[in-house]
Specification:
By secondary structure, the chain is mainly alpha-helical. A three-stranded antiparallel beta sheet has the order 1-2-3. Strand 1 and strand 2 form a beta hairpin. Helix 1 runs parallel beside helix 7, helix 6 runs antiparallel to helix 7 and helix 9 packs across helix 11. The protein is elongated, with a radius of gyration of 23 Å. It has two domains: 227 residues, Up-down Bundle (Rhopdopsin 7-helix transmembrane proteins), CATH 1.20.1070.10; 66 residues, Winged helix-like DNA-binding domain superfamily/Winged helix DNA-binding domain (Arc Repressor Mutant, subunit A).
Length: 309
């Protein structure tokens, strides 16, 4: 039965790699910050599955698999789980265009780095190599509570993002991700009390099926299909921008010139050459433009200008 689970996980991971490859291609091509953040999120959960498969395989097939190796691998697995939450929060903060996105995401990231260290401290976990048992202490219980609270915050952000995108072409993409995330959240809720009350875990105890891998796999199929027919906005011919658009967003003359170059599909280097300014100056102007328009990438800027026509 365990070998069948490993085979199943391998199939799921292959689907995940295919979804990552095609979404990563479009993230690179469009330079869309939200799509890039999605790839990071999807990659972290894929890594969770890989670590789960690796743990099962070593336990079943490697003689002399040491308790120390299991202890370290289990800690890495937990750390990556925390990373999934950080990636989820960062992604939905971006979709919601939260003004403090970077500060909140950075706060979560620093907390993750701290908690990774805490995982291996004696007041959190202790390895008994003679018995192949990891004793779970008060620190681990605190991390368990933090994980659920952070996951709850991520789900709230997800529902808010779905509400804002309900009448847009991003609705199905976000809806599918939310279903996938909600499934994992329910799984976390069901195991919360058990994890909180557990005092030890044994190397001989095998974890059951990671049920959140099922919606992950189904969402992988959706992502592949979505990007097979994905059609990002193409460069458009715009001779000028309306005065109402310029004044509404406080766009300067130089920023207007750069926007017109961007919507023509020109690169930063080409814009710098044609306007006789440095590449760094172009990037600074683009940063200011993105901030004023509330966008995060050329992809979003193009869509914004198109909608204003």
């Amino acid at each position: 039965m365990e070998d069948l689970q490993i085979a199943y996980y391998f199939a799921v991971i292959m689907i995940g790699f295919a979804a990552l490859a095609i979404s990563g291609f479009w993230a690179f091509k469009t330079q869309d910050a939200n799509l890039r953040n999605f790839c990071i999120l999807y990659a972290t959960f894929t890594l969770v599955l890989i670590l789960s498969v690796l743990t099962k395989y070593l336990t079943l097939n490697v003689e002399g698999y040491s308790g120390r190796a299991w202890y370290v691998l289990s800690g890495v697995y937990q750390a990556v789980n925390y990373g999934v939450i950080v990636a989820t929060v960062n992604y939905f903060l971006g979709l919601n265009q939260t003004p403090a996105q970077k500060r909140i995401a950075t706060l979560f990231l620093f907390s993750i780095l701290i908690f990774i260290g805490i995982l291996f401290l004696p007041f959190s976990t202790r390895l008994d190599e003679t018995q192949n048992i990891i004793h779970l202490e008060l620190g681990f219980q605190g991390l368990t509570i933090w994980y659920l609270l952070s996951f709850t915050y991520a789900i709230i952000l997800a529902y808010k993002a779905l509400q804002q995108a309900w009448n847009s072409d991003k609705r199905n993409f976000i809806l599918g991700l939310l279903i996938f995330a909600t499934f994992g959240y329910i799984e976390s809720l069901l195991t919360f009390s058990q994890n909180l009350s557990a005092s030890a875990v044994s190397l001989t105890v095998e974890n059951g099926l990671l049920f959140s891998s099922i919606p992950y796999m189904l969402y992988g199929f959706f992502v592949i299909r979505h990007f097979m027919t994905f059609a990002p906005p193409t460069p458009i011919e715009v001779d000028t921008l309306s005065e109402s658009f310029l004044s509404a967003h406080a766009i300067t003359d130089r920023e207007r010139e750069i926007i017109l170059k961007v919507v023509e599909g020109k690169s930063n280097a080409t814009i710098a050459s044609e306007l006789f300014i440095s590449l760094a100056t172009v990037k600074t102007h683009l940063h200011n433009i993105y901030t004023k328009l509330g966008v995060e990438s050329r992809f979003d800027l193009l869509a914004k200008v198109r909608s204003a026509k």
